[in-house]
Amino acid sequence: MAKNLIPEELEALIKEYLTDGVLTDKERQVILKKAVAMGLDRDEIDLYLDAQVQKIDQATDTAVRRQKGKQCPHCGVYVSQMTDKCPGCGQYITPEATKELEEILDKLEDALVSMKSWKDFDKNKAIVERYERKARMYYSNHPKVKALLAEVEGEKLKAESQIKSMKRKETITSIIKNKLVWLGLALVIGIVIAVIGFARGSLIGFLGVVMAMIGLIFLLAFVSQDLR
Q1: Is residue 227 very low, low, confident or very high in pLDDT (cuts 50, 70, 90)?
Q2: Which of 195, 188, 178, 174 is closest to 216 using CA atoms?
Q3: Strand pairing partners for 92?
Q4: Which member of 42, 94, 152, 186 lies 3.0 to 4.6 Å from 215 by CB, making a disulfide possible if both were Cys?
Q5: Which H or E run contains 90?
Q6: Tell me, what's the pLDDT at 110?
Q7: DSSP string computed for the chain
Q8: What's residue 79's pLDDT?
Q9: What percent of the chain lies above the pLDDT cut of 90?
């Protein structure tokens, strides 16, 4: 909602409540109630309040960062804006290093999200390992890098275990669905039953012969069909 569409009276009330940088639930309800009484859309005013609170949060975060100074991309220590060499790890703080760290963190986080979906696992694993090497080589002391690398390593192990389990299930399912396997098994069992039955002089041997013949006929039928 455009700011100039909000009545001055309501805008003044919003500014008053946001003076301390915090908008309580009670203050929000008072503003929304007044907005509805003025004939304004409640949802639009609610979104406008969210946007104003977000602006304040961003401004506060920026001010805190400026007060602390810049952050060393190698170890995460905050140092003075005028300092080029980190007193914590002794590394030089350059715009290139900071930009590279941001790229590494972004790529690792993106690949981690993709890896958790288990899609294109090998591709995402290769991307992760590429940026892992860079991160460990140049920025391994940075706390955010440490935490992210630990999460990545855990997710890699979890995903690899899950994929192995899925492959085992697929193999078992494939075997179960394979008609040739079962027909071959029926043929072997039939032959065994026939041999044992005839050896004992039992009529069950004929049942084994019938079973073996049925298995053989269907087996040959499926094989010839696959060969065509």
Answers
A1: very low
A2: 188
A3: 85
A4: 186
A5: none
A6: 80
A7: --GGGS-HHHHHHHHHHTTTS---HHHHHHHHHHHHHTT--HHHHHHHHHHHHHHHHHHHHHHHHHHH-EEPTTT--EE-TT-SB-TTT--B--HHHHHHHHHHHHHHHHHHHHHHTTSSHHHHHHHHHHHHHHHHHHSTT-HHHHHHHHHHHHHHHHHHHHHHHHHHHHHHHHHHH-HHHHHHHHHHHHHHHHHHHHHTT-THHHHHHHHHHHHHHHHHHHHHHHH-
A8: 79
A9: 1
**Amino acid code (one letter) for 64:** V
Look at the chain and count its residues.
228
Sequence ranges of the domains in the chain: 3-66, 95-168, 178-227
CA distance 45 to 1: 7
Task: Report the alpha-carbon angle 127-132-133, nearest 5.
Answer: 105
Say if CB 211 and CB 189 are below 8 A apart: yes
Burial of 195 by CB count in 10 Å (0-12 exposed, 13-18 middle, 19+ buried)?
A: middle
**What phi and psi values does residue 213 have, to the nearest 5 degrees?**
-65, -45
**What six digits make up the tokens of 88?**
């914590």
Q: Phi/psi zone of residue 76: left (φ > 0), alpha (ψ -120 to 50 degrees), beta?
A: left
Distance separating alpha carbons of residues 28 and 41, to the nearest angstrom: 14
Q: CA geometry: angle at 68 spanning 66 and 70, to 5°? A: 70
* C-beta atoms surrounding 125 within 10 Å: 19
Residue 98 to residue 79: CA distance in whole angstroms: 13
How confident is the model over 128-186, as pLDDT tens digits?
788 888 888 888 788 888 888 888 788 778 777 777 777 777 776 665 556 666 666 66
